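haha ok so turns out i had the wrong file open the whole time. this is the CORRECT one, sorry everyone. sequence first:
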Amino acid sequence: MIIVMKPSATQEEIKGVVNKVEQSGLHTNLSKGAEVTIVGVIGDKKKIANLEVNMLPGVEKTVRITEKYKLVSRNFHPEDTVVDVDGVKVGGKNIVVMAGPCSVENEQQLDEAAAAVRKHGAKFLRGGAFKPRTSPYDFQGLAEKGLKMMREAGDKYGLKVVTEIVDKDDIDLVSEYADLLQVGARNMQNFQLLKALGKQKKPVMLKRGLAATISEWLNAAEYILAGGNNNVILCERGIRTYETFTRNTLDLSAVVAVKELSHLPIIVDPSHGTGRWEMVQPMARAAIAAGCDGLIIEVHPHPDRALSDGDQSLTPNTFGRVMEDLRKIAGVMERTL
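then structure:
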């Protein structure tokens, strides 16, 4: 349930409502907008049903929330959330680009990639140190050695570092090197991992599962917010359909749906969403036009020699041309990239 306060409600009246709710054994989540304050109520459904607050001073109305996700819902938090990742803001007017290789392979490869993506305007260096792969015989990543290499390259070129975390026991280790923790598609419903990420404050990027509905995706994000970590970014990376021409089917309608249903920022991964490097540019254009808050793009100095996902990786020169094009689209949308 949400309690909508009158625009004229005083701080004392808001405090009185919060106290009433918490004395009933329920939890509150306060959202203060430019014109209205909303008190979100979370807890036992029976207690919420018996809660009487409509007659309290300053209350305009109460609204029942039918979705299972509450903290993620725009009803609870009407204004867009902007996630601050160590000084780089994701959400709002700026469109943030994260770029780099699928996997960290060696120092030279990573240094070349980092230099290129920084030169062309990316704010984050992406790369996998732990790589959960479909086949156990595929390259699995360099683990902590790869994390160290990413941190060194990020610091050298002034880039924030985003990398995937696959195990809750690795949170402290990965957090030591990364600025943004990525939960991959295969772990979207790894609830023990999500709960653990909710207990720490490092920002989290949650990718949509291979066959997850938007509701399932938002409920997964709810696990993180329910633990106390509000710094969550959603990532649409394509879903599995019957189509075989592309690696996945990039669902850009999800950007529009998420913007309606949730206040969390959303970025799009046109690399995994298509699996074909030549489709990254047009899908990135479309993603910006649909209203996304950022892009995560795979860039490799030598895609033909990549240990993973070379078919969907851009060369540095191609990435530069793509970024020039995307700035034009961003401008049309009255945003900056």
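Residues 316-332 form the longest helix (17 residues).
again sry for the mixup
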